[in-house]
Predict the 3D structure of the following.
Amino acid sequence: MATLDDFNDEPADQAVQDLRACNAAPRFAAEVAAGRPYRDVETLVDRAEEVARGLPWDDVAIALAAHPRIGDRVEGGSAEAESSRREQSAMDDADAEVRQALEEGNRRYEERFDHVFLIRASGRSPQEMLAELERRLGNDEEAERAEVTEQLAQITALRVRALVS
């Protein structure tokens, strides 16, 4: 974990690498790193959310590929894996019925939309995530892409804040 000053002063390639752990879309990391130096954490987080919300779908899809399914046990020591474990910690308390429903819901979602179900897990219970999954299965493609992009922006903001806090 670095401070904002560390982030502002590190070499550009290191800043990009750090940001790719927050959002795997190459355009995201390049655009946010290019905005350095940031005067405070809020300005950095706001910029990260703005860039994430403005990503074209192809870039969002790249970022999605780095996210595990809700309810999957994430292995490994990468920054992405550590973030996912922290963000999905509420799943540790999920009962077998909710886990099974999420597993089935994830399968139906992926069949319908051809990508992983993405939701900001931080601050949500397993039951809330399941309810959102069920609700979003009713979305059309355009509405779901908008929701995915917004969830990605929220997750990215949390990760960028953790990066420099």
Notes: The mean pLDDT is 90. Residues 4-163 form a domain with the UraD-like fold (CATH 1.10.3330.10). DSSP finds nine helices and no strands in the chain. The CA atoms of residues 108 and 137 lie 8 Å apart.
